[in-house]
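Troubleshooting entry. The earlier prediction with uridine-diphosphate-N-acetylglucosamine gave an output that would not parse, so I re-checked the input for stray whitespace and re-submitted. Clean input:
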Amino acid sequence: MLIVSVVGARPNVMKLAPVERELARRPDVEHVVVHTGQHYDPEMSEAFFQDLWIPRPQHNLGVGSGTHAQQTAAVMLRIEPILQLVRPDVVVVYGDVNSTVAAALVAAKLGIRVAHVEAGLRSRDWSMPEEINRVLTDRIADLLFAPSPDAVQNLIAEGTPRERVHFVGNVMIDSLCWALPQARTLDTVTRHGVEGTPFVVVTLHRPATVDNPAALREMLDTLVALGEDCPVLFPVHPRTRERIHDTGFPAEGRGGLRLLDPMGYVEMLGLVASARLVLTDSGGLQEETSYLGVPCLTVRQNTERPITCQLGTNRLVAPQREVVLAAARQALEHPLAHRPVIERWDGKAAQRIAASLCDGARFDLDAPARSRAPETSTRRVSEPISAAELVPTETAA
Ligand code: UD1
């Protein structure tokens, strides 16, 4: 069986890695990875393949930055001849970036089956380019791998045939489980000089958060104020770095607020796992913090990952100084006692994906999400995550 995976942006690589590892164990499968080049700086791309110990992609389309139309069109034009040449049995796309929808569209029109990892998430906010990418990709995908019960229900409500939808769990958590032991040994906390002290980790990169200079300035002032309470570590995405530069804010930060270069996956995980609080507009961090039991404030009006608010540690906050400061101080003063457990966020999602892709296995949602009450599905934060949970087992659940 010949499978092509297409990735383009930083978070795609964390979703690819566990799938690549599972497919590599199958002698009858050839897995070809195509990188579109949507992200191209070494620390936004190459570093993640090294960190996650997966081979570098066989093809790089070198698409780079541009408007949405330019980027999407460039991926389409450059991937079509590769898919025509390789003629895979299935093309696997990940997440919700421009590369995802572009590759899915080309494959579907070539009559190649499309599988979407992280299908069914919906923010219902059509001003987000990612929402458009998600809905369009799911509409043309043949196999939809949903991370959570709400994602399954969204797809069914939109009329997706049930047999296409598989509740496989969350591949981001597979990568987290794989990398956490390494992350702990790196001792990132000591290297950043924040051992033994509560600290906050920040990431902000979405246009809605960083493209408006007045709003960005207010967020930076908020972070400076928070930095008076404890260290605030902010690895800065290249887009955000440019916008911050435009405001005239000091490149290295101010007071307790430290502006850092983008970090590798394992280093970042080491920091997040030990943080007292994460403040973000990222999708993946809402999930990672929920798994780790670290409080997360998401500076957005909505989330496509509502399960992280319902069962996890996530809370949406308006991007206003007083609102963010009040919520952050409350989280800093009242650490969580329990770590949530979310169904099928167990390090085995990629096993299920491989079983579905290669063996035709089915993974249904067999009970309404509401019946999965969280009362018994929490554990104390101080309880270690067991080795059985960290090391995915051989058999698909
Ligand atoms: C993209 C995704 C977003 C995802 C994010 C993860 C879309 C629509 N958006 O946003 O969903 O959360 O990736 O990081 O696909 N740049 C560099 N070096 C790079 C990459 C980007 O300097 O390696 C700068 C360029 O100025 C570029 C800007 O960042 O114009 C934006 O990059 P782009 O890929 O368009 O979107 P992201 O904001 O990274």
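This one parsed fine. Residues 9-11, 38-41, 44, 65, 96-98, 129-130, 205, 237-239, 242 surround uridine-diphosphate-N-acetylglucosamine (CB under 6 Å).
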